[in-house]
Amino acid sequence: MEAKHISWKAYEEDYPGKCNAAANVGKYYRKHNPFISFNDIRTNATRCAKIVNAEEEFDADLNAGRLPQYSYYTPNIDHDGHNTGLTVAGQFLHSFLSTRITKFPKGTLIIITWDEDDDKHANHIYTALLGSMIPPGTTDGTHYTHYSFLRTVEDNWDLGSLRRNDATATPFKF
Fold first, then answer.
1. Whole-angstrom Cα distance, residue 160 to residue 167?
2. pLDDT value at residue 86
3. Nearest alpha carbon to residue 123 among 92, 141, 144
4. Domain-embedded: residue 37
5. pLDDT (mean) for 2-17
6. pLDDT above 90 covers what percent of the chain?
7. What is residue 17's three-state secondary structure?
8. Greater pLDDT, 117 or 174
9. 33/94 Cα distance (integer angstroms)
10. Do 87 and 29 have their domain in common?
């Protein structure tokens, strides 16, 4: 992304900051913050500074019109439903989006996804895409994976492939 001058930031709820690589601190869980797992981010102060506490920076960036081109938001372990369930996750998502959706820049694609199911559905997870490029009511039965998310990002900015599972992944259609 840097080579293509794509701005980015990871907004992590309850993130303790300072490149903290602990497995969890309070309601922040590292396993939901992919950026901190990359040595070339975690060991680089400039890059690591792009991983921020969501409560401290997201609304300020959104309201000031300075969201990066690629913004990654991770709820804490309660808001993502892991420790609380779908009702709490749904309430959080509704509250989060209903007060912010009209403030996102034109052309924003919001991808909402879970990382696992309840082990009753062969690990089929819910993913929704929201944005002006998605006609309301659109459904798609195509088989996608988490690598589809990565492939969509790579294709959107012509970043090339990591030449792993993303290389053969089906990008999201819209």
1. 9
2. 86
3. 144
4. yes
5. 97
6. 84
7. coil
8. 174
9. 22
10. yes
Domain identity same for 16 and 55: yes
Q: Which pair of tokens denotes residue 60?
A: 């300020």
Compute how many other C-beta atoms are within 10 angstroms of the C-beta atom of residue 138.
11
Contact between 36 and 42 under an 8 Å Cβ cutoff? The reply is: yes
Mean pLDDT of 92-109: 95
* C-alpha to C-alpha distance for 132 and 110, rounded to whole angstroms: 10
Q: Which two tokens stand for residue 4?
A: 């293509």
Q: How far apart (Å, rounded) are the C-alpha atoms in residues 155 and 161? A: 9
Q: Are residues 57 and 101 in the same domain?
A: yes
Please write the tens of the pLDDT for every residue from 157-171.
Answer: 999 999 999 999 999
What pLDDT, in 10s, does the model give residues 59-77? 999 999 999 999 999 999 9
Question: Distances in Å between the alpha carbon of 161 and those of 34, 35, 100, 130, 171?
Answer: 17, 17, 32, 24, 12
